[in-house]
Amino acid sequence: MQNLSRRFSTVPIHKLLPQQLHQHQPQPTRFFIPFSEFQQKRKLLEHKLISDLDGCANLSQVKEVHAHLLRHGLSQCCYVLTKLVRMLTKLGVPLDAYQRLVFLQVKYPNPFLWTAMIRGYTVQGPISEALNFYTCMRSAGTGPVSFTFSALFKACGDVLDVNLGRQIHAQTILVGGFAADLYVGNTMIDMYVKCGFLDCGRKVFDEMPDRDVVSWTELIVAYTKIGDMGSARELFEGLPVKDMVAWTAMVTGYAQNARPRDALDCFERMQGAGVGTDEITLVGLISACAQLGASKYANWVRDIAEKSGFGPTENVLVGSALIDMYSKCGSLDEAYKVFQGMKERNVFSYSSMILGFAMHGRANAAIELFHEMLTTEIRPNRVTFIGVLTACSHAGMVDQGRQLFATMEKYYNVVPSADHYTCMVDLLGRAGRLEEALDLVETMPIAAHGGVWGALLGACRIHGNPDIAQIAANHLFELEPDSIGNYVMLSNIYASAERWADVSRVRKMMKEKGLKKNPAYSWVETKKGVIHEFCAGETNHPEYAEIKKALDDLLNRLQAHGYQPNLNSAAYDLGIEDRKRILMSHSEKLALAYALLSTDAGSTIKIMKNIRICEDCHVFMCGASQVAGREIVVRDNMRFHHFSNGKCSCGNFW
DNA sequence: GTAGGGTTAG
Fold first, then answer.
1. Whole-number Å distance, CA A245 to C1' B3?
2. Above 60 in pLDDT, residue A180?
3. Is the residue at A126 inside a domain?
4. CA-to-CA distance for A280 and A316, rounded, in angstroms?
5. Among A181-195, A208-222, A576-590, whose mean pLDDT is lowest?
6. CA of A93 vs C1' of B5, distance in Å?
7. What biological processes does GO assign it (predicted)?
8. Are A204 and A188 spatial neighbours (Cβ–Cβ below 8 Å)?
9. Which protein residue has its CA closest to C1' of B7?
10. Which domain-ending residue is among A90, A111, A144?
C-alpha cells in the first residue's frame, strides 16, 4: 500500500501540471570542489539569498534576487524558492504573474514549496486553485505539512465554506497524524466557529491531545460572540495560564454583551494577576466605561490609558474609543479635545466625532467636520454616512440629507444599506413627510429591517399619525414579534389620538404575548461620583420626602412660568388628576429633583435614562433649566438633550 | 502559520 504521508515526490512535476512553461535542468555539480565545501558554500549562499529576500519591498527587487539565484544554479532550490513565493504573497504580487512561473520550473517541489503556493492562493484566491494545488501535491505523492492544513482551514474560514472545511478535516485524519497537530487543531477550531459551527469547534477542542492558550481563547471568543458569557467564563476559569489576549477576550466579551460592570471587575482581576495592558485591552475597557456613562469611570479609564503608555494623543485606536466614550458620557467638549489633540486620525476618529456631534444635536458641527475630513485623504465609510445623515435628520435638514444620500454611492462607493435607509426614513419622517417616508420604505431596493419601520413608527408618534403607524407596526410585529417597544409606541400613538378601543386592542396583544413593559429608570451621578438610580413611581428612596418637596417646589415655579402638564404623555384611560400624578412620578423628574438637592449650584446636571424621554419631561426639563438656572444634560436610550435657558439642543426633534 | 480590537441608525 502506498504510504500516504510520504513527504517527497517521486513523480516529476511536469507530468502533473501540463501547463508547464519552461523546464530548467538543474545545473551540473562542479566536481572539482570537495563536496562538503560545496555544500557549505551553497548553504551560505542560500542564507544570503533569504536575507536579501527579506529586505525586498517590491517585485523588481525580488526579481533581482531571483536572477541572482538562477545565475548560481539554484533554480531547483526549494528552500530559497519557498521564501521567494512567501515574500511575493506578502507583497501582494498576483501568483499567476510570477510565482506560478517560478514554481513550474521546479522539477521536484518539496512540501514547503507546494504549501507556499497553496497559501498564496488561499490569501489571494481563488480558493479552488489552492485546492487544485493540494490535489496535485497529493497526486505527486508529496505529503502535506501542518502548515498546509492551517492555510486551507484559514481560507475556508474566510469564505465561510464549512463543507470544504469538513472535507479538509477528513483529509487531516486520512493523511495521518495531522488531526492531532496543535496548529492544525487551532485553525480548525477557528474555521468551524467562523462558519458558525461552534459545537464542531468545541468537539475538535475536546478531542485535541495538546491545547494551548490559543485554542482556549478561540473558543472563549466564540462563546462571547454568541452572547454565552456563562460558557465563556467557565472555559476561561479552567484555562491554566491566562495571557493578556485571553484576559482581553473576557473584558471585551463583557463589554460587547452589555455587562460593563463585569468588564471592569474582570479588568481589575487581570491587573491583580499582574498581566499587562495594551491598546486592545483598553478599547474593550473604554467601551465598557462608555456604557456606564459616568464621568468617574471616564476619567479613571483615561488615566489608565495614559499610564499604560497608550494615550489618545499617540494612539489612534485609544483616541477614537475615548472620543466615543466621552460623547456617550455627555462630555462632548472633552471628546472634541481628544480629537483635536490626536497626532494621527483615521476614519474611525472622524466618524466617532461626527457621531458624537450628531448625538448631541450639533448638526452643523457634524457636517462641517465631515467636509473637513473630505479635504484629507481619509474617505468616508458607511458609518461616517450614518453620522452625517443622523445629524441632518435631527436638525431637520432634509435637502442636505438627501443630497448626501445621493452622493454616497456615486462619489464614495458606499452602497446605501438598510441602516442608511433608516436614517432617510427618519429624516423625512421627523420633518413630517410621512407619506414620502412610507413611499421610500416601500420602494427601497433592499429589504427593510426593523430599524426602517421603527423609524417610520417613531415619526408617526411625533406627528400623530395612527394610520401609517399601524402599517409600520404590522411589519414590526412580523419582524420583531417580541420587541415590547413597538407595542408600547403604537399604543401611545392611539392614546394620543384618544382611540381607546385601539389602545386596548394593542394592550391585549401584548398580554397575549406575555410581554411586559420595561420599567423606566434614570440615574444621576452626585459630586462624589456615587450613582443614584430612580425607578418611575418609586417612593422608597431614603430621601424621598425631600425629593418630593423639591419636585413640588419646582413644579410650582414652572407653573408660574406657564408650564402645563402634557397629558398625552400619560397614555392611560384615567382621570386628569391621576394622569398628572403619573407624570410627576417619571424617573427623570425624580432624578432631576435629587440632583438639584445634591449637586453644586452652577454645575451641569447629567441624567441618564434607559428609555426615551417623554414629551412632558422634555418640556419640564426645558423650563427647569431656566427657572433653576442650570445646564441639564439628559441621555436617553437614543441621544443627548442639552437643556439650557429654557431650550433644548435637539430643537424639539427627537 | 493559529487567539483579543474602535465608530452603526428606530
1. 7
2. yes
3. yes
4. 11
5. A576-590
6. 28
7. RNA modification
8. yes
9. A352
10. A144
